[in-house]
Amino acid sequence: MENPDLKAWVDGWMEKVKQGAEVHRQQGPSPEDAEARDYAPADVKILTIAHVPESLQQAWLQHLRDFDVAHPGCHFEVMVDAPEMPLPDIINMLAINPGLTFTKLLERK
């Protein structure tokens, strides 16, 4: 089942990636890029969609959180799309240590 909200979000990100690539092609590499190729962690956004079996969902989120804690320059924005999962089960899945900071929790009907 395709989620139109998730598709719109991914399409928006892909459009930003295309725009950034086009600007880079037009401007060409900067002298700094040609010499160093060093990037600060905030310079790169990696979009990952993980299809995770129920038995591994909490472990996957804990893995992300552990990586986040071990690398202070990283920042993760996590979106869980589980329209068939009851909200209490989603909350339990997100119970990792240290806890996540929430900005939005939406229930779809």
What's the structural blueprint in terms of helices and strands?
Layout: H1 4-27, H2 31-35, H3 57-70, H4 87-93
Detailed description of the structure:
The protein has helices at residues 4-27, 31-35, 57-70, 87-93. The protein has 109 residues and is mainly alpha-helical.
Shape: globular
Q: In DSSP terms, counting alpha (H) and pi (I) runs of 4 or more, how many helices?
A: 4
% residues in beta strands? under 5%
| Total separate domains | 2
Q: From the structure provided, what is the oligomeric state, counting identical versus distinct chains? A: single chain
How many beta strands in the DSSP annotation? 0
Q: Low-confidence segments, ≥5 residues, pLDDT <50?
A: none
> Mean pLDDT, as a whole number?
74
Summarize the structure.
With 109 residues, the protein is mainly alpha-helical.
Task: Output the keywords.
2 domains, 109 residues, 4 helices, mainly alpha
